[in-house]
Amino acid sequence: MIEWGLYNYWVVIFLMMTGLYVVISRGNLVKKIIGLNIFQVSVIMFYVSMGKVRGGTAPIEAAGFEVYSNPLPHVLMLTAIVVGVATTSLALALVVRINEAYGTIEEDEIRKIEADEDAS
Amino acid sequence: MEALWSLIDNDLPALQIAVPLLAATLCIVVRRPMAAWTVAMVVAWGSFLNAGVILHRVVTTGTISYAEGGWPVPWGIELRIDLLNALVLLVVTGICAIVLLAAPRSIEAEIPRDKRYLFYAAYLLCMTGLAGMTITGDVFNIFVFLEISSLSSYALISQGRTPRALTSAIQYLIMGTIGGTFILLGIGLLYMMTGTLNIVDLANQLAMVGPNRTVLVAAACIAVGVGIKLAVFPLHIWLPNAYTYAPAVVTAFIAATSTKVAYYVFVRFAFSVFRINLNFDSTHSNAILMVLGISAMFAGSLVAIFQDDIKRMLAYSSVAQIGYMVLGLSLANEYGLTGGLVHVFNHAIMKCGLFLVLACVLLRMGSTRLSAFAGLGRRMPLTFAAFVVGGLSLIGVPMTVGFVSKWYLVLGALDAGLWPVAVLILLSSLLALVYIWRVVEVGYFSAPPEGAEVVTEAPFSMLLPTWILIGSTLVFGVWTSLSAGVASAAARMLIGGVS
Predict the structure, then answer these.
(1) In terms of C-beta distances under 8 Å and separation of at least 24 residues, what long-range contacts does B479-487 make, across chains too?
(2) Taking 90 as the threshold, does the pLDDT of residue B73 lie above it?
(3) Which residues of B339-364 are buried (b: 16+ CB within 10 A; e: fewer)?
(4) What is the count of structural domains for chain B?
(5) pTM of this prediction?
(6) What is the mean pLDDT of residues A100-104?
(7) In this predicted structure, what is the pLDDT of residue B282?
(8) Model pLDDT for residues B228-267, shown as the tens digit of each residue
(9) Residue B61 lies in a domain
(10) Which residues have a Cβ under 8 Å from the Cβ of B371 and sit 6 or more positions away?
(11) Residue B72: pLDDT above 60?
(12) Per the domain annotation, does B243 fall within a domain?
């Protein structure tokens, strides 16, 4: 029988590997950044799954609720999301500047332009 | 004055983070480049002074623990300063303050006037992140400050003159973000096992959990993540480009601080967090690190010999020097670790001094290629003399700081019974001699090209910080009670497990 209790973590691992593969294999800088985002999101999902207690509610004290989810990992992820947004926006800003300077955002073309510069 | 002092007396550790963070926004508000520089100078030198006071307190009265916002440890975030990070903090803030002296003249040629205030803001943010990583006692906080310092350093690097600065910055950004995310994942796994984020508490809880696979995976994730930021040998590919194409002062600043703080984090995790749980022998991690360290020493130095751009040469030399630090860590005995830690201090001052020399050369000659150094010994004698002294220190000639580090590393290798490692340390120093000699030869023994313009010595505002650093490589090469004294006390503390 398949253990469905760990289903979240399989998703996390799948997303993580997808993200990492995209970063490594794609030459287009925007696609690389998308890969980076998928990679970061997988870790965010990992933390969120970790804090969830089965049957638990939001950690607000109220009559009739006994089991609460752990709020700390969820709060940590607010910070991680902010970090992710900052990274993505900085990366995209750099990509815009690279496009202005080189006229392309394909890594192999950029490398070719740089190699031609070195040769001349 | 007395009233003011008593007001901030207990909050010195928090000021180390809060003041540069707020001052960075102030830089954006004031907008005028010189005003922003003044703000940055006051804050950086204030932080340096503060770090000195903190180090003095740690040495005299022991570890400082500061509960941020008054929340009791381990629930709240703790700033925890012991001998190890007090020394690193002093190095980081000191380098920030000294490099800033050279900044206005150097960036005049590299950064347009309307962007200079943003440069100082990013500089202060980077300093905030590095200081925060150094003094925090909370692992998640390390991640947050790591990202603050990384993001601002990507922005600083991208300000270089050529479009290559942009591609180097994005390469570093991609590598750095993967590294940061791996650290985050490792921290998550540790939290899963222990339910705590405080370093001291984490170490105690892990000791109770005992060895298991989750902890091992966490250690691997953190090692890879920090390894990328530290630029350990096979993970160093972002470093040469980033150092070569960044503005000259940014290279001096980042080369001397960011990898050093990453090394500190590595040591902290290896010896304070995982020490009981993952002893080095069972996982062979010290053997792996030793191989990587030695490979870095040779690969970095060999590649450095064939570089035409001197800035790139020194960048590869940094890869080699990081190899020495990692080797010191992998020896895992008192002398070896002392060597690694003292090299953090020593390498920071000598490499920062050398990169400032290159900033002077770039300002006057417009290039840092080897051809620009022709006859430089006569054209810019003070600048070039600084390069020679810094180079000697890089090789490890006695009376310079480089010798002190290598002395401890060799002692550590012999103490561990690994005499071939001691021989390899000496052999790799010979490679450093080769790449430094190439430049010295061109500088003193070849004539400047016919009809070359007359160049003047670098401006005083840049020579002063260069010679402060280069001079201190000589001072700390002889007087070692601050650097090696504190480093060996810190190493004893880590090895002995008294934290």
Answers:
(1) B480/B342, B480/B404, B483/B87, B483/B342, B483/B345, B483/B346, B483/B401, B483/B404, B484/B338, B484/B342, B484/B404, B484/B408, B486/B55, B486/B59, B486/B83, B486/B86, B486/B87, B487/B87, B487/B338, B487/B341, B487/B342, B487/B344, B487/B345
(2) no
(3) bbbbbbbbbbbbbbbbbbbbbbbbbb
(4) 1
(5) 0.93
(6) 90
(7) 63
(8) 999 988 888 899 999 999 999 999 999 999 999 999 999 9
(9) no
(10) B449
(11) yes
(12) no
The whole-angstrom distance between B306's CA and the closest CA on chain A is 15
Chain A residues within an 8 Å CB radius of B235: none
Q: What 8-state DSSP symbol labels residue B115?
A: G
Structural domains in chain A, sorted by start:
4-53+67-119 (1.10.287.3510)
- B171 lies within 8 A of chain A by CB: no
What is the domain range of residue B356? 306-499
The two three-digit tokens of residue A64, written as one number: 């009739």
Q: Rg for chain A (alpha carbons), in Å? A: 21
B17 in any annotated domain: no
| Nearest CA among B299, B465, B304, B467 for reference residue B370 | B304
Q: Please give the average per-residue pLDDT across B270-297, as a whole number.
A: 77
Best probe of the A interface among B141, B161, B166, B222, by most A CBs < 10 A, is: B166
* pLDDT, average across residues B486-496: 85
Give me B432's structure tokens.
């450093």
CB proximity B280 to A under 8 Å: no
Spell out which residues of chain B touch residue A97, defining contact as CB-CB under 8 Å. Answer: 158, 166
